[in-house]
Amino acid sequence: ITILFLIVVVIVVVIVVDLVPRAENVTWSSLNFKTILTWDPTPTDYTYTVHFAEYVHTHTPTHTHTQCQHGLQGNVVLTYSADIKSEHDVTDDDDDVDDVEFPHTYSPKFNPYRESQISAVSFKIQAAENGMVTLNISDLITSVRSRQSGKLLTIREVFNKDLKYKIIYHKAGSTGKRENISDYSIAKLSNLDAGDSYCFKVAAFIPSRAKALQLGAWSQEVCSEAERHILHELSVGALVGLLFILLIVISIIVIVTILCCRRC
Ligand SMILES: *[C@@H]1O[C@H](CO)[C@@H](O)[C@H](O)[C@H]1NC(C)=O
Ligand SMILES: *[C@@H]1O[C@H](CO)[C@@H](O)[C@H](O)[C@H]1NC(C)=O
């Protein structure tokens, strides 16, 4: 009878465990260091427990969504991995079930410093003169909080010297593209044709990363103003006046020439 009872318990346990699905499609996504771990399926009457390399986070059944999110406070250079365990809701008198190995899934490894995507930056043209253009690029704010001040850090503060900006530009109305890489958020471009309008696009660029992950999203295109020619600056009235003066001068020259010729 005892043996029979044990077999029944084992069968019940197996059924319970079988009812709990294993986490699938475990993926990391990270934008500007805001990192989210997602998986399927949505839990019904069970919970997921996620063990991170750094801390533990439990999902109760009331959290029907299947994602974890955290700011990875100041530890962006670390590699993270997660172990997602599906656990059936266990009541206190169900001691046997406690010892059961529930299905679990390991996430891929993730390193925000090397893998977090960087969104498009914004910038403005600060100066354009004598064939030289200065761009002022705004460093994005990340989701990383400074341990000292509690403030959110910029991508410059996170990456320091590892952060460059890639700039592609072309003369307005022409297709020939040029490229330059700036170490600083204030980027200077020289050897441009003075007076012409140029259009620029900027993206964060981290050459220390693997090739496919180096480039952030491209910014919107911003064009410099072409230096206007003198004639464009003059009003219609001024132009008429100028023509009138020209006419008088020419008339005088003609009259003087005619008079001189007659004397000859
Ligand atoms: C760049 O622009 C920001 C405002 O967008 C300004 O505060 C900063 O002083 C500018 N940098 C330089 C070097 O002019
Ligand atoms: C980028 O600009 C700097 C300074 O204007 C210049 O010295 C350098 O040759 C440029 N690099 C490329 C790849 O055009």
What can you see in these coordinates?
The chain is of the alpha+beta class and 264 residues long. It contains six helices and 16 strands. The strands form five sheets. It has a four-stranded antiparallel beta sheet. The protein is rod-shaped and about 145 Å long. Bound molecules: 2-acetamido-2-deoxy-beta-D-glucopyranose (NAG) (2 copies). The site of one 2-acetamido-2-deoxy-beta-D-glucopyranose has 4 residues, from strand 9. This is Tissue factor. Interacts with HSPE; the interaction, inhibited by heparin, promotes the generation of activated factor X and activates coagulation in the presence of activated factor VII. Residues 1-25 form the signal peptide.
What attributes does this structure have?
alpha+beta; binds 2-acetamido-2-deoxy-beta-D-glucopyranose; 264 residues; Immunoglobulin-like; 2 domains; rod-shaped
Task: Summarize, please.
This protein is an alpha+beta fold.
Q: Give the terminus-to-terminus CA distance.
A: 148 Å
Number of strands: 16
Would you list the SSEs in sequence order as H and E? Answer: HEEEEEEHEHEEEEHEEEEEHH
Query: In CATH terms, what is the fold-level topology of the largest domain?
Result: Immunoglobulin-like
Helix content: 10-25%
Give the radius of gyration.
35 Å
User: What small-molecule ligands were found?
Assistant: 2-acetamido-2-deoxy-beta-D-glucopyranose
Mean pLDDT figure: 81
Percent in strands: 25-35%
Question: What's the main sheet like?
Answer: 4 strands, antiparallel
The helix tally amounts to 6
Number of self-contained structural domains? 2
The CATH class assignment of the largest domain is Mainly Beta
